[in-house]
């Protein structure tokens, strides 16, 4: 009997590894199909409104000042990331994760050069910085905000990104300008610095919700994420970090792994409220928050978290901004633009190809393991017998559910490589479930993907 067990186990591991490779191959095939079919559609009628489907990008092979740094960071993380993640003191690991993500994101951004990659990214006609002066008087600007969402206001209409988000997004950059950090360079620095802190937030949440071992296994994959191509530089990277810290604080409160769980719950609510006023679509983060509470088997943080979120909503409402009216008008504005012609039948699966590109093939393989283990894991969760990997899988599944809900809504046709960053950071930990002996191989796949995208394409964000 012992012989049969020991011979079957290696066979089962080999089968699982083959299934991982097959899942990664199917993810790559999805990207190729999206590129080929999308190119045919775009050349036929231009309805996709992107130059290099499924990404908002253009073919532009190039090297840049960030190239040597990006290669160096990739090699160092692949070679030393897994062993360092296993043995560094926990607090040092969290800081190292943030700094590593920052180094990776900065180096990728600088492949396009300082101006193109960072300083001018947020100064285009679609971006927030073009309307800073219109917020010299905050009260009237907020009370009037919804009046400029639709395009029929002509030159007074908000540019696309301002119209497409609640006012906390543009107010962030107004605030930076008010304290003397105006302009595209400081905006880019802000987005990269804050955006990369999502790595630290996810590590904190994973340790509290799953366990420290799972968090340590995930750390190198969070650092070397292909998503860094778009975190540097877009405001959505910053949004992702705010949402990630909200979930991290909620997790600390739910698991009572912090000295003041009540304060953590209230702070989580305040950040959730801010998240909803940064982007309408990020209300879907509530699905991940619900998963955190269900896995923790408690609703104790909920009253304070709801109070914090309500306080943010109250402040904006008293200032004159109606969130529901803003969202209603946004839907109308959305279909006044490219969304009116972008075909839902393509983007419903083309968006998923974008997700493969931002999360990488390692996450696809890890997600295969999450889905394969989901039925027994959910049963163990229901009976209070869940292991650490079960709890990690539950959060990944919730993030996938939120992403799929955004996809089905039709309000995310294209540009999801940027828009879905807040969901993507919670899919990345799926790679932690891959065999530790193969982590370096999978990390290399993540790095190669990001380097190819950033060197072969000029991305729009």
Explain what you see.
The chain has helices spanning 2-45, 67-87, 90-109, 114-119, 138-143, 160-163, 168-178, 184-196, 198-209, 212-223, 228-231, 235-255, 261-278, 285-296, 302-318, 323-334, 344-382, 388-409, 416-419, 421-424, 439-456; strands at 57-59, 457-459. With 461 residues, it is an all-alpha fold. It has 21 helices and 2 strands. Helix 2 runs antiparallel to helix 21 (439-456). Strands 1-2 form a two-stranded antiparallel ribbon. The longest helix is centred in the first third of the chain and has 44 residues, at 2-45. The model is unreliable at 1-8 (pLDDT under 50).
Order of helices and strands: HEHHHHHHHHHHHHHHHHHHHHE
| Helix-strand makeup class | mainly alpha
Q: How much helicity do the residues have?
A: 55-70%
Outline: globular
Please count the beta strands (DSSP E, at least 2 residues each): 2
Strand content: under 5%
Number of helices: 21
Key attributes of the depicted protein:
mainly alpha; 2 strands; two-stranded antiparallel ribbon; 69% helix; globular
Provide a quick synopsis of the model.
The protein is mainly α. The protein has helices at 2-45, 67-87, 90-109, 114-119, 138-143, 160-163, 168-178, 184-196, 198-209, 212-223, 228-231, 235-255, 261-278, 285-296, 302-318, 323-334, 344-382, 388-409, 416-419, 421-424, 439-456; strands spanning 57-59, 457-459.
């Amino acid at each position: 009997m012992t012989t049969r067990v020991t011979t079957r186990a290696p066979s089962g591991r080999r089968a699982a590894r083959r299934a991982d490779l097959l899942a990664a191959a199917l993810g790559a095939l999805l990207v190729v199909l999206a590129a080929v079919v999308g190119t045919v559609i775009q050349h036929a009628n231009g309805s996709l409104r992107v130059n290099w489907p499924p990404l908002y990008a253009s073919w532009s092979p190039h090297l840049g000042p960030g190239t040597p740094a990006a290669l160096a960071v990739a090699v160092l993380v692949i070679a030393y990331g897994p062993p360092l993640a296993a043995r560094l003191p926990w607090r040092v690991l969290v800081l190292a994760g943030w700094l590593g993500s920052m180094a990776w994101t900065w180096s990728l951004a600088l492949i396009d050069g300082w101006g193109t990659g960072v300083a001018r990214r947020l100064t285009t006609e679609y971006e927030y910085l073009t309307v800073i002066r219109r917020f010299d008087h905050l009260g009237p600007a907020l009370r009037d905000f919804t009046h400029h969402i639709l395009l029929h206001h002509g030159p007074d209409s908000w540019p696309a990104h301002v119209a497409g988000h609640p006012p906390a997004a543009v107010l962030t950059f107004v605030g930076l300008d008010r304290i003397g950090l105006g302009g595209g360079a400081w905006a880019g620095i802000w987005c990269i610095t804050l955006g990369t802190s999502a790595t630290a937030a996810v590590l904190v949440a994973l340790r509290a919700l799953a366990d420290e071992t799972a968090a340590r296994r995930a750390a190198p994959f969070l650092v070397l994420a292909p998503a860094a191509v778009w975190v540097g530089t877009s405001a959505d990277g910053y949004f992702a970090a705010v949402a990630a810290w909200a979930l991290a604080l909620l997790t600390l409160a739910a698991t009572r792994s912090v000295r003041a769980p009540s304060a953590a719950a209230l702070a989580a609510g305040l950040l959730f409220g801010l998240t909803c006023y940064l982007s309408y679509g990020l209300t879907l983060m509530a699905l991940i928050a619900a998963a955190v509470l269900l896995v923790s088997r408690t609703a104790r943080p909920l009253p304070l978290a709801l109070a914090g979120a309500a306080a943010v909503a109250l402040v904006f409402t008293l200032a004159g901004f109606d969130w529901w009216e803003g969202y209603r008008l946004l839907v109308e504005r959305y279909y006044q633009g490219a969304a009116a012609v972008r075909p839902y039948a393509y983007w419903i699966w083309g968006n998923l190809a974008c997700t493969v590109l931002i999360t990488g093939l390692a996450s696809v393989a890890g997600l295969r393991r999450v889905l394969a283990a989901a039925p027994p894991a959910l049963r163990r969760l229901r009976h209070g017998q869940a292991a650490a990997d079960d709890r990690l899988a539950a959060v990944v599944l919730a993030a996938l559910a939120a992403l799929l809900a955004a996809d089905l809504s039709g309000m995310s046709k294209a540009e999801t490589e940027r828009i879905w960053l807040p969901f993507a950071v919670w899919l990345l930990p799926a790679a932690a479930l891959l065999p530790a002996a193969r982590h370096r191989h999978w990390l290399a796949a993540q790095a190669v993907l990001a380097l190819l995208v950033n060197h072969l394409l000029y991305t729009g964000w």
